[in-house]
Structure formats: C-alpha cells, structure tokens
Amino acid sequence: MKKAALLAGVVAAALVSASGFASDLFDRINAGRYKAVLADCAACHTKPGGQPFAGGAPLDTPFGKLIPSNITPDRETGIGNWSYADFRGALKEGVGKGGKRLYPAMPYPAYSAMTEADIADLWAYFQKIEPVSNRVVSNQLPFPFSIRTVMIGWNLLNFSPSEFKPDPAKSAEWNRGAYLVNGPAHCGTCHTPKSLLGADKTDQFLRAGNLQSWVAPDITNDAHKGIGGWAAEDIVAYLKTGANRFDIASGPMSEVVANSTQYWTDADLTAVATYLKDIKGAGTAPPRPLDAGDPLMLAGKAIFVDRCSACHVSSGEGAPFLFPKLAKAPVVNGDDPTSLIRVVLEGSQAGTTKARPTTPAMPSFAWNLGDAEVASVLSYVRNSWGNAAPAVTPAQVKDMRTKLAR
C-alpha cells in the first residue's frame, strides 16, 4: 500500500508539473474522455434520463441490489473530495476513500490491468466534468453481504491485482486488443461464467455469462457456440454499428455499442477483433440435434412458420443488418437459452448508432404464446439449420415470465 501511495503521489505530481502544465493537462483530459468511453463508465454510472455520471440505475446481482455511485466531482455526494490515491485505489485495488471496500460489480478486477497513465488520464477527465449533487445509497445488499469487510475475504480468494503485461510473442495489435478486452472494456465481466461467489471462472474465459436475466454469449473463436464463423471485419462492424451480416446487438449489448464501442477508433476495434479471433473456445463436440420428426420440433416448426419466418425466413438466415440470422448463431447454440426466452416474451428493440440510426424491433409474443408454445418454437430454432442445443422447457419459460412480471 505504501508503494502504491508513493506511486500515486508521483503520478499526481506529474499532472500538475510546471513544465507544459496547460497543454499536458488538456491532453490528459481529452485522453481521459476517450478512456471513459473505452471503459463504458456511463453504462453504469448514468441512469436513463439522468445527469452524466451522477449515479446509475439499480444493478440486480445474485446477492442483492447495488446502485452505481455518483462519480462527478461534487464534494458532498460525488468524488470531489477524493484524492488521486483514492481514485487509483478504487480502480486498481477495489478500495476507495477511507479504505471503503468496493463490490466487484464495479469491475476493479478488470480495471486493475489498466496502465498508470490511463488511470491518470481518467482522473484528469473526471475532475473536469460537471459536478452534480445527487446522493446515492449504493449498497442495498441484505445482511451479511451488506458488510463491506466481507470483500477482504472475497479478494483473498478471487482477486490478484496486476497491470497488463504485453506478450512479446504476439503483435502490437494483438496486445492492444488483449489490453482492451481484459482491462478497460472489461468484456469478461459479462461474457465469462461466474462462480457461486460471483468471481470469473477464468478457465472458461469469454464462454458466456448470465447476468440480470440476460446471457452474454460465447465470444471465443468456437465454431459452434462462439463467433468462429465471424471474420475480424464482422466483429468490427458489429461493435461499430451494432449490426453485421450475422447479428444485431440487443439487450445490454446494444447499450454497450450505443454508449461505448461505436465511438472507439477503428484501430482499437480491429485490435479487439484480432485478439478475439485468437481465443480458443471449449472445443467440445456439438450435441446431437433433436430429430426433425420429434413432436416438439413439429410443434415448434408450425409456430415458427406462422409467427417468425416473415422476418427470419424459413431457412433461419434472416436479413443481413436487419433481422438476425438464427442459423448457426452463438446465442442460439449456447447452453443457456435465457436471452432467447426473454426476447420472445419481452420483445426487443435494437440500439441506435450514428451509422445505423434506424433500427428494427421484435414484438413481444408473451400475450399470445403460452409457455409450452414458446418452449417448442425455441427448441425448434435451437435444433434446425445446423443448430444443435438442449431443448427449452416450459418451466424455463414460466420462470422467465415470472421474473419479467416482477
């Protein structure tokens, strides 16, 4: 801790050095603005319709509810009375002002990989944004999780802070992508499965995670469950515009694209694509699909032809950049059908970007499809056109319908 405090003091001193003060500070603020976009700080710390970074909408975790804090420089309700060391400690070590332990819903396990320079840039930027008075009670967890000192034990078991170290055997582009995915962009926070304690299962890196009743799909190079069929250009297009020839961003990912990745430089998007294409998947053989003559498949096909084929077409190919392709799609072939069930029941509206300001929508079918019908049509989709995945059960649909009703 003494070494970290000393380092924080050195960096802070560099920010206010007499030599080139004005230009250096401007450059840091401008760089920090971009780093905040890379880290998608607004996604959590700005609630819909709220003031930028003044506190976000509640996050439902398996342990209870957390509300992202006010990170504007307001002295009473934000971080205006924090020091640089406090700020750095929060991002790099999960410990804020006064030794306050943070919960990993604020993804400090990923942010700890960020460079000292990037942290300093972020600090410079957040010192200059508009302060907003908005008191947020972040910790709304039930006992005993509400006691922040429990995080000492969690960190001992699950967290080893370390700054990203480039792999000399890889290209500069690959290393940049690895830094972004593992550090500021914190992709694994959603796309990596979690243990019972809420920690990343590092041996299943980027192989799909379930958070807030959405599945962040497998984004490894796995040919069946992941994005092995996507070229690097497809990944760039998806992150830049929210759509590619295979899929359209929806749910929380549409917010990531709208708030963050559409504003990344092309070089950074390409770097991420280069890195992701090098991440191996589980490599397990796909399951055997249900037989086309199975009663569940026959029932599901009839519903699909009647309700779904107009947009997704009878072959499941959809329409590029307009209606998602269902054939050989990662989210369709994944083990967990949560997102598929949710979209059928709730409907979906794709997020807008500068490149694609007009987006398609899918209506809700909760009102005219029962649990068994939703289960059968999704089982059909998950076992047709080269897809192979476990059948969906009526009980799974009923569970999601209950959650959405709440």
Automatic annotation (TrEMBL):
Cofactor: heme c
Entry note: cofactor: Binds 3 heme c groups covalently per subunit.
Binding positions (heme c 2): C187, C190, H191
N-terminal signal peptide: 1-22
InterPro entries: Cyt_c-like_dom, Cyt_c-like_dom_sf, Cytochrome_c-type_DH, Membr-bd_ADH_cyt_c
Binding site for heme c 1: C41, C44, H45
Residue stretches spanning the membrane: none
This protein's name: Alcohol dehydrogenase
